[in-house]
Amino acid sequence: MSSSEGEPQLPNRTSEIRKDTVFGRWVVFSPARSRRPSDFKSKNPNPTSNHPTSCPFCIGRESECAPEIFRVPPSTPDWTIRVIENLYPALRRDLNPPDTGSDQAVGACRVTGFGFHDVVIETPYHPITLSDLEPQAVGEVLLVYVERVQQLKALGTLKYVQVFKNHGAAAGASMTHSHSQIMGIPVIPPSVTTRLSCMKEIFDSTGKCSICDLQSDQNLMINSSTHFYAIAPFAASYAFEIWIVPREHSSYFHELDRAKAMDLGGLLKLMLQKLAKQLNNPPFNFVIHTAPFDLSPSCVPYSHWFLQIVPHLGTVAGFELGTGCYINPIFPEDAAKVLREVDG
Amino acid sequence: MSSSEGEPQLPNRTSEIRKDTVFGRWVVFSPARSRRPSDFKSKNPNPTSNHPTSCPFCIGRESECAPEIFRVPPSTPDWTIRVIENLYPALRRDLNPPDTGSDQAVGACRVTGFGFHDVVIETPYHPITLSDLEPQAVGEVLLVYVERVQQLKALGTLKYVQVFKNHGAAAGASMTHSHSQIMGIPVIPPSVTTRLSCMKEIFDSTGKCSICDLQSDQNLMINSSTHFYAIAPFAASYAFEIWIVPREHSSYFHELDRAKAMDLGGLLKLMLQKLAKQLNNPPFNFVIHTAPFDLSPSCVPYSHWFLQIVPHLGTVAGFELGTGCYINPIFPEDAAKVLREVDG
User: To the nearest 5 percent, what fractions of chain B are helix, strand and coil?
Assistant: First the structure.
């Protein structure tokens, strides 16, 4: 599938508008312009060999970084993963936390920029990317996320933690050394509120968790592992967007255990490799959608964490800005088929 | 202000999180990295002289375009503005409209990709951009939007019309000839629902329209005209975002009359010139936020249209994708001051 010569055309489909069951978004599927899988290849691939001479994330240069929070393994110069403070934090741990009720305020509201903004250095070696690591090593990175989220939860001053990775400058990465970020925020973000409201509405109406229900459509399935499966979501906002979903209903990412983290590490690596191979090493983001810390017990039945991977292939422009609707040039059943068939 | 030598530093402010009164979004203001107005200049400015030899939007090449809907003035080869169908429409006028209640459906939902996707060619001449036109000519473009929205409303099959402009490839423009787009959609988009809900909540609590209330803060004011004013919004999601707001409470953009369109043309031109001058001719989008066609009379007191201009200076990355919160490196009161002081 990686050569366009003799490459099969995508099925000829008619434009469709779909609403998703997790965010309640409308997405316009408009396949008119793109007909072959290779039409989607990134025009802006991430360079693979641009090792700067002075990267503070490289092993041996730890003193050039902001303070370390912890490393794995602990207390050794031969670390494999480090969690450090962000040198330019968007939120600051040295301010006072806002009142707990501030996100319920009606009208214009301002609170201090209190919060945490940490960096996870995923490997000591500059040329290595996350998807180059062994599955177990990817699993160890996930366990580091878990440990740091648990630490932030224990503080009692934060309402949500966003774990995310920006890979490539066009996806927002300011450092080329492989890393991810963890932001602890003192208000419940709007996407989280919207997601929980949408999933509640569906649960109240059908008795089902929207996420548990995702595994029923085999046309959208890409791959699966013991504890997880990877799908192209029914109303994907972005071309070749992937969701990796725990099979077992679970509200909180930070309750992930070691066995499941290792299993997820393998599936995440496989999906990143497939995207890189099929789409010419595109810039991408992944984000972990989990529950806010103070989730009431009544919300547990419809709150289910998952990991979303978004390759950067197009531009968010005026239509998306105005409407919140996205235009996706490939149907997810076609994206799933392309990704099923490409090797990892 | 256009040279960084001797340029004043921006005020030293502490990170803050603000919630806006129109979309209900939280925005993180994190000024740590940028200290001078010139730090924000676009690294990706729009080229000014890349006239291709074969642009179908240029005068004399009308036969290479998709069908024309109307031109101004009518029935003359010496047109100044043309409205045409999009050659690659995201939505298709040849499909059947969906049921009117489909956007209220709970759960996964799919409807046909019925809708309209038109292009407004703003000038017959390739090197001219919208902000190069005389204020009256910009006003004529706005009146063309009004006329086309009125035509789409009269069809009775659409729920919302999104008028938007993408300027520059990085802002999503696939053609360099100055143009804007009008999409008629058969469902109420999620951003519109969210905006009306947020404004209703504030109206119910305070008795005020959130938008009418915006002119009270002089620190955020950039410029004003007889019928409109331009502000940097209190919780701007994007650096140097501008809203142009009608002084008089008005739900529908398409009720704009000629005198107000001419007045708005001048203020819009001025804002685009200021952004180009201060920010090195950045790619940008503007979008018109108006009310859905079937607005119930009870919603009129809190529904107020406005025009949002967003220069493309940064990247929407993992944090925004996960949380729906944006990180803005410049406080709007500082952006407003910079834009007040730069010439048009």
Answer: 30, 20, 45
A339, A222 Cβ separation under 8 angstroms: yes
- The domains of chain A are located at 16-47+190-341, 62-98+111-185
Domain at B1-98+110-344, CATH homologous superfamily: HIT-like (3.30.428.10)
Q: Give the Cα separation of A262 and A146 in Å (integer).
A: 13
The domain A16-47+190-341 is placed in CATH, from the list 3.30.479.10, 3.30.428.10, 3.40.50.20, 3.40.50.720, at 3.30.428.10
Which burial class, exposed, middle or buried, applies to B156 when counting CB atoms under 10 A from its CB (0-12, 13-18, 19+)? exposed
Quick check: A318 and B166 in contact, CB under 8 A?
A: yes
pLDDT for B248 beyond 70: yes
Ligand-binding annotation for B126, yes or no, is yes
Residue among B16, B20, B21, B26 with most chain A CBs within 10 A, to mutate? B26
CA–CA separation, A233 vs A240, rounded Å? 9
Q: Of residues B51, B117, B167, B179, which has the active-site annotation?
A: B179
Assigned CATH topology for domain A62-98+111-185? HIT family, subunit A (3.30.428)
| Helix boundaries (H) for chain B | 135-155, 190-206, 258-278, 318-323, 332-341
pLDDT tens-digit map of B277-292 = 999 999 999 999 999 9
Chain B: nearest CA to A289, how far in angstroms? 7
pLDDT tens-digit readout, A53-76: 789 999 999 999 999 999 999 999
A187, A282 Cβ separation under 8 angstroms: no
B341, amino acid identity? E
DSSP label at A247?
A: S
